[in-house]
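dude i think i finally got it to work??
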Amino acid sequence: MNDENNRAPIIGLIESPATGLYDEDGKNWTSLYRHRSLIGKQVIIADLQAGGFATRLVNLRDGNHSEEFGEVVWKGMTLRKTYVGGKVAALDPHACDAWGITVNFSQDREVGCMVVERLAQGGRPVVVGGSDALAAPHHYLQAGAAAVVEDKSGGANRAIMDHVLGRPLRQPLAGVVLADGASYPRLVKSISPDDWAIPSVAVARDCLGTLPNVQGLAPVGSLVADIGCDRSCDFCMTPNYRTGFRKMSPRTALNWLEIQKAAGARSINVASDQFLARILLPGGRQEILDIVNGARQIGIAMMWPNGLELRKTTLGAGRNRGQTDLRPDEELLNALFGWDGKVGCPLAYCPAERPVFGREAYNKLLPWQEHCELMKAVVRTGVPVLTYGVIIGLPDDDHERLARLEEAISALLEDLTEINPELEFQTSCYSIIPLPGTRQAQTLRQEGLLQFEDTCLWGAWTTTSNTRYLSYAQVSDWQIRLSNIRRAPRGFTNYNGEYSGMVSTASSDDSKIVMSNLK
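look at this
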């Protein structure tokens, strides 16, 4: 018997290097997230292993190589496009039988295509997934991919690997686009996270990251407790996934958390699209309490990097009705945000979006007074670090509107720090970007507001669009100004990564790596 013919095919799973944009002073204008938990890889690896494939994780995000691959002029500055991590040219394209790479952010598209091109040189099939690939598959197919996965639920993974490896199909192809132009529609009903394969402790350990918070540089695991969303915000790609809202049961979620704890995690990034959407379903509120209180019993902290919809933490559960009760649900808030120094929530991201003067663009937002009362209730839970997300660059934004936004946030900050003088408060001010396939991208182009088509600029910190009254450079100036509404009794937690162009104190060893390698 030929052992080579009977071995499980090896699938190499690539985590791409991080994208940076460095100005002449060595300041970076991207988040340059590195050393973070590999959220999607954990799900994919467990699924492929359960399907009989062997896997090999190749994490190019955490190496210490940096390499310049181009430049772009923005705001009068020449920014050097630089990737940081493992060296792409050092990849052995023959090391695995097939390859998988995920590209979720358009800003990483150029680097992602570099990785695809390198791997395709070996003649082994490359399969690409992720939000950006789903929205703009042709870029990755042109780079040499054999297929792009369009099913975000994970239902297409095993079948497409069987197909590209020339193995008998155990499931029909669905939710993929092939290099020859053939397209296979998604499954009518997406796979639920409750049906995903549970990762082994070894897989979970390989996918751990780190994130500075009040626990120190703590090992961080991950949990995707649901996919899909009940909202359809015009800036967001999630509605285009067409998965519907699919959730894990509390039992399954706690099983995942037990695995993360056994792997060494002290905190968890809950990377749900809309964790609180289950509150709209029968028994959903109790499920939320069972999961977060169960995490406390396990002894593991929970963080919310995608944020939690504040409107859904009201007694009216976020329903958009005339008489909805918008008072804070204190029990729910304490379960989600409470911190006792060991377990609970050490760091919360609150997506305020546009709490005033632009709120009408988002159905999920609360009126300003109710928003302030809810934020006060969040702070009363004892959460030590609060990141407050706002979005600017809306078509009608002008100097007056943004000045009033600044005034409102500053006043709110005073109220919050009066409740907890030890609170660390950071404003994360994002500018709107033309995420592929979104209504927002369509509007920006139709009105001639979009000024840059270079996707390396399509990140949170490099404004790419004018408003009807402001240039993109003026919007950027406001973005920097609002991002510096910050207060902490001690040093800041660098939650937003290496974005020292925006906030001068947001620096890390990543800058030292880049500047030592670049000439």
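The CA atoms of residues 361 and 429 lie 17 Å apart.
im so relieved honestly
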